[in-house]
Amino acid sequence: MAATCPGMPAGLRIQFRIVASRQSGRLIIGTPPAHGRRPALCYGYEGGVAMSKQELVFDADLIRRYDQPGPRYTSYPTAPHFHSGFDEAALIREMAASNAGARPLSLYFHLPFCEHLCFYCACTKIVTRHHEWGTPYVARLDREMALARRHIDGGRPVTQLHFGGGTPTFLRQTDMAALLDHIRHHFHLLPDDQGEYGIELDPRALEPGTLALLRDFGFNRISLGVQDLDPAVQKAVHREQSEELTFAVLDEARGLGYRSASLDLIYGLPFQTEDSFARTLERVLQWRPDRLSIFNYAHLPNRFQPQQRIREADLPSPDAKLRILANSIEQLREAGYVYIGMDHFALPDDELALAQRDGTLYRNFQGYSTHAGADLLAFGMSAIAMVGPSYSQNLKELDAWGAAVDSGHLPVERGLRLSDEDLLRRHIITRLICDFALDFDRIAAQFGIDFPQHFAAILPRLQQMAGDGLLRMDAGGLTVTPQGRLLIRHVCMAFDAYLDAKPVQYSRVI
Predict the structure, then answer these.
(1) Broadest EC class (predicted)?
(2) Lesser CB count within 10 Å: N end or C end of the chain?
(3) Following DSSP, what letter does each residue of 27-75 receive, concatenated?
């Protein structure tokens, strides 16, 4: 069957299939965005259950009831449960075993240096104006790659590459060029933008010509930290960055042919109001970034020392934060963006949105991705790898990491080899975060379990969430409702066997 959505360009038709429902339901061909250059999305409903994975409903009462601290699930088990028993020898075994599977590779490089200290930041970083420190760091990254190449087949294609930090563009252009040459020497990179190669940018730390250098190498995605455009907010968090500078970088990247640009905003910062953040988002949306991340500021000054410079009295109240989030969701909906999950939004024809609709979306330490099934190698201080059924994290102190590399050792500090039960629960949590749904029969067949029997202990908790409207569940599976999707971390927590294993201070879900 075919139909057109109101507001769609003439001649554009959407194919869809009406599926008989077990209960009375309705089929809705959704509403178009209020403005924007992209075609409208069409949404379907079966039995009253939303068939689109990307619809979102803000329910303040439900959020207040379920807004509790919980993990962000960049991994499962999460990093606090890594242990020192997983060492260099364990990582070498996992690398050697992974060669037999010949899976593609994903590479992550942690470049920790920052010229300025952002008070909200919880990343592993080194604040310095000594740009010359980048030279020995890059040399050690080369040695670390050479050490890894003794055990990993470098001919496996690199489908994903990511530079994070810190501020990756802190490196002087000569050091950046050297690092790119080292990567090309050690690994098999894909031509013609076949891979997903991205870098985090600070517009304040970007030499002329660096974007072109990266693009020539094969980088095709950028992520820009914006946080807020209001001068008072910027001053309070020590992140003063003009709108003109920010969007000049975005313009340059588009002119060079980068195929995706993502902008990061944070709500809950000092002196933010509903009106001020709405103005920031309005100005950002005028530039139509392909993706937007709108993060909740988690004020944890006991864990992150820089946050002690932010006065709690200057922060918006919890209710004000909720109103800021609600307004932002509405602005994004009107602008034509769809909800990917876990603070992320995208234009409907972005690769993330397409992958989510196809059921192929994936999530790892670099966030949402279209490249599942790769072994992740990580280089640099504190970087986390995921090879086979294992995680490993490098030493977090610069001197200790450098000393290990200089002595010819992979700089592993801790890690974890996942059990069969860990792999099952990781799969469930990943699919929840990406699909907002679980097919019990499919999981049972894949992992050889009786799903209701295996998870009998948590079914009452899931039933309570269903009663509260977070999800719908029957014998065949569950679907997170549009109003439950902002609380997806809470749904995942039901399957987390480690939550009570040791005390960990997590940020709140919203």
Answers:
(1) oxidoreductase
(2) N
(3) ----PPPSS-SSPPP---EETTEE--TT-----HHHHHHH--B----SS
